[in-house]
Write a structure and sequence with these properties.
The protein has helices spanning 2-21, 40-50, 53-63, 84-92, 103-108, 121-137, 143-162, 171-187, 194-210, 216-220, 224-227, 234-258, 268-278, 288-319, 321-334, 350-363, 395-399, 402-405, 442-459; strands at 68-73, 76-81, 368-373, 378-380, 383-385, 390-394, 460-463, 489-492. By secondary structure, the chain is of the alpha+beta class. It has one domain (25-492): Cytochrome p450 (Orthogonal Bundle). The strands form three sheets. The protein has a four-stranded mixed sheet. A two-stranded antiparallel ribbon has the order 4-5. α8 (171-187) packs antiparallel against α14 (288-319). The N and C termini lie far apart (90 Å). The relative contact order is 0.15.
Length: 493
């Protein structure tokens, strides 16, 4: 009897193992997975070995000779796309417009499935359209936006001047300037306390380093938050969420107290409150919680990506003196010493624009993009993807594709200039995404990067401190690519 039970148990275990490790029919190639945890353990160990998740995916692309890699992380089927035509299809096809409904994304939005970034369907469409309409009404992409950035540039120049040519890490002040531009559109004014803002930005940096786009162990096995809340960074995200809520709520209450119909277009919060009042007494997505989640999405999206790019631009200039000299020469030929840079100057400052594009291409702030959710069974690269499969996109593989760029590992702004010194070769530049889910803040980010870069170079020369070290080219991995801390000197020109 005991032997029979033992044999039955072994048969059951074998059957379970076969079912749990079986790949779906016509699923993309990739490493074999284990029951329960799937490829999570393998992906984590390989990421430690290669240094970054995108490097693991690139290695698997070569190993399995496929631009589409099929994984399983916990109970979630995950596919990674690593080629431009395939990623372009994901960006532009409606069946890939969904977002996964998993523990990590719900934790990111404080346990809800609200906001814009982590939602899909009617809620996503309604809220995205609302934010887009408001931004257009309030001058987004027009003179009002440019004047706001120019005003922040003046204050940024003053801040740099106070350093008196002492070594500084640009990240410590650039992020505040970038975020203040976004926050003025959101709340109608700058963030009053730089100390409070600096604390929130530090929490955001920790959050970015602690996770990758797959969500890590916490997404695979959420119960680990009870066993190791610190090690899994569960407590970090909770602290971040709580502090952001505490930061947003007084500002929202202040807007409610000051609300008037003549103030609807002043900022996003007033516009949202107006929608809430118009929908009183009926079922609506315009609620206090949704407002907090929308602000959270804008804060997270704008706080790091643009400031990290500015940081990489400063780093690239100090590492490439000839490039910096070309920038200075171009600016001096177009602008007088006290003339504020403007978006109308872009055609005449094409080398600066090329420098910004090359920085985004070379350093890839978002090396792995997503996650997307397959809304219905579909095919990708000839493989079958079941409904609800999670899809990640290796944007860095597009920007580092030797077949297209020729010398992708060389930092060369000229690749984006044609013989007439006009911007070209941008068809495979995907830093802001493509399609319906393209970055909402693209116009603001592009304008900020251009005006801040020109304004800084107009006034300063960037140098390595005496006896200082050249910045490390290798960046820090995480949800977003972050420069390794470095110091430079801003010398008055």
């Amino acid at each position: 009897m005991l032997q029979f039970l033992l044999v039955a148990l072994l048969v059951l275990l074998y059957t379970y193992w076969r079912i749990a490790t079986k790949r779906p029919k016509l699923y993309p190639p990739g490493p074999k997975w284990l029951p329960i945890i799937g490829n999570t353990l393998l992906l984590r160990s390989e990421t430690r070995r290669y240094g970054r998740q995108i490097d693991v995916f690139r290695a698997w692309k070569e190993k399995y000779n496929s631009s589409v890699i099929g994984l399983k992380l916990g109970s979630e089927l995950v596919v990674v796309a690593l080629d431009y035509p395939i990623i372009h299809k994901i960006h532009t096809s409606s069946e890939f417009d969904g977002r996964p409904d998993n523990f990590f994304l719900r934790l990111r939005t404080m346990g809800s499935r609200l906001g814009i970034t982590c939602t899909d369907g009617e809620l996503w469409s309604e809220q995205r359209n609302f934010v887009s309409r408001h931004l257009r009404r309030s001058g987004y992409g027009r003179n009002a936006m440019e004047e706001l950035i120019q005003h922040e540039l003046n204050e940024l120049i003053e801040v740099i001047g106070t350093f008196a040519e002492k070594p500084v890490w640009p990240c410590n002040f650039l992020s505040i300037s970038v975020l203040n531009v976004l926050w003025t559109f959101t709340a109608g004014k700058k963030i009053s306390s730089n100390e409070n803002l600096a604390h929130l930005l530090e929490l955001m940096k920790q959050r970015s380093k602690a996770f990758d786009m797959s969500g890590g162990w916490l997404n695979t096995m959420p119960f680990l938050r009870f066993i190791a809340p610190e090690r899994t960074s569960y407590n970090l995200i909770r602290r971040f969420n709580i502090e952001l809520c505490n930061f947003f709520k007084p500002i929202i209450e202040e807007h409610k107290n000051e609300f008037g119909v003549n103030r609807v277009d002043e900022d996003l919060i007033f516009a949202f409150i107006n929608e809430m009042k118009q929908n009183e007494g009926v079922s609506s997505n315009f609620t206090d919680t949704q407002l907090i989640m929308v602000i959270l999405d804008l804060f997270i999206a704008g706080a790091q990506s643009t400031s990290n790019t500015m940081d990489f631009i400063m780093m690239s200039l100090v590492m490439n003196d000839e490039i910096q000299k070309k920038c200075h020469k171009e600016i001096d030929a177009v602008l007088s010493a006290n003339e504020l840079p403007s978006l109308k100057d872009k055609p005449k400052l094409a080398y600066i624009e090329a420098l910004i594009l090359e920085t985004q291409r070379f350093y890839n702030i978002v090396a792995v993009s997503g996650p997307r959710r397959v809304l219905r069974e579909t095919k990708l690269g000839g493989y079958r993807l079941p409904k609800n499969t999670t899809v990640l996109m290796g944007l860095e593989t597009i920007h580092m594709d030797t077949a297209h760029w020729g010398d992708p590992h060389v930092f060369r702004p000229e690749r984006f200039l044609d013989a007439d010194n006009k911007i070209t070769n941008t068809e495979r530049f995907v830093a802001f995404g493509q399609g319906k889910r393209k970055c909402l803040g693209e116009a603001l980010a592009r304008a900020s990067l251009f005006i801040f870069t020109v304004g800084i170079l107009q006034k300063f020369k960037l140098e390595i401190p005496p006896n200082g070290q050249m910045p490390e080219k290798r960046a820090q991995a995480g949800l977003l690519t972050t420069p390794t801390p470095y110091e430079i000197v801003f010398k008055c020109r």
